[in-house]
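Today's session is about reading a structure prediction critically. Students often jump straight to the picture, but the first step is always the sequence itself: look for stretches that repeat, for charged clusters, for runs of hydrophobic residues. Only then move on to the predicted structure, which in these notes is written as discrete structure tokens rather than atom positions. Here is the chain we will use throughout the hour.
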Amino acid sequence: MTNVTVAETVRPAPLAGLVPPAEELEALLEGRHSQPHRWLGAHRCEIGGRAGVVVRAFHPEATAIECVLEGGEAVALRRIDERGLFAAFLPAVELPIRYRLRRRFRDGNTDEQADPYAFLPTLGELDLHLIGEGKHRRLWQVLGAHPRVIDGVAGVSFAVWAPNAVSVHVVGDFCCWDGRILPMRSLGGSGVFELFVPGVREGALYKYEILARDGTRRLKADPLALSAERPPATASRVFQSSYRWRDLAWMEARRHRDPAREPMSIYEVHLPSWRRRDPGGGRPLGYRDLARPLVEHCRRFGFTHVELLPIAEYPFDGSWGYQTTSYYAPTARLGGPDDLRFFVDTCHRAGIGVIFDWVPAHFPRDDFALARFDGTALYEYEDPRLGEHPDWGTLVFNTGRNEVRNFLVANALYWLEEFHADGLRVDAVASMLYRDYSRKEGE
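Below is the predicted structure for this chain, in token form.
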């Protein structure tokens, strides 16, 4: 920024220089804009023959917004649209600038945070290329929600693949679940929408509000969420692992083993029902509480491995977990992701291998999950003859799409790498191999 005192140079700018073109303005304020960074945030401009920077901010519940510059000066933004768009022109100022937005709300409360629309995309060109090719083997590291610090600002980056959406907004307890406040940016033809939101912390609950081409809005859980709210609630949860593994000896020895040449005895177990907190069948034990007694059981009866029935999040308590709704999030019924890591770690240190039951063949129709995710048959086939499973009433993954294959392959790698699983038992393989599975001739 040039060496000027902004407060001395700011003059009311003509609205024509502050207000976006009518079509862009309406799309932005009605939640239909896929490129909000084009107008929100700080942008170089010239108004009345003076060069400078215009700062725009949108919040429908704000009564006043100030731009607080790095030196502490506060410049009031003008309300340029009654629906909540504010702007100010800072003459003789050059980009880049560091600033925060101080907002006052109708209830009298105030907050001050860095501007979400002041940051560059959190995914690079290589990430987007690999996603499009279906070859991003660390998909969970770039899509989903990730706490990070950018330019000294702590927050969470959100990214989701929704190629047929008109627009996507991230909503959560950090914005009172208001779908107007945080529109996300579309990253070209990749189909990925992203946004870095300062001030959001680990543990925050969130979803995506997706505007489909038919005009409907859908609240969807994050397909790449690493943690989820405990069912029957369906929100995703921001999570960052802090677990320190202690199974190095097991992992090193595993590299030199040939499972085809060693004896193996597997104990299959449904963790939520294996042991309860009281004899009357109360709440199930958690991952941490289950670890030691299950290890002792396996060692007593000579089992070399334990196979866990599906532990990815699912909606119905009465099921065994074969209708997965959040493929990267261990079920919250038994604890958090690091609690599951503790369980696996404990098994390994006791010489017991761990196999996860994995369900890549089909997924349920629940409105909050993958079904018609962006208003179209995105993860499933459009043709019901291919996309619907006749036995279970579930939907079949469209593995002919690069991004869907990537989602599943990366998911398998995620459980193997992030949770040190020793193998995956793949469910319903025959239904994936045979397209006429459980169908009569001609169906």
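Discussion point for the tutorial: The radius of gyration is 25 Å.
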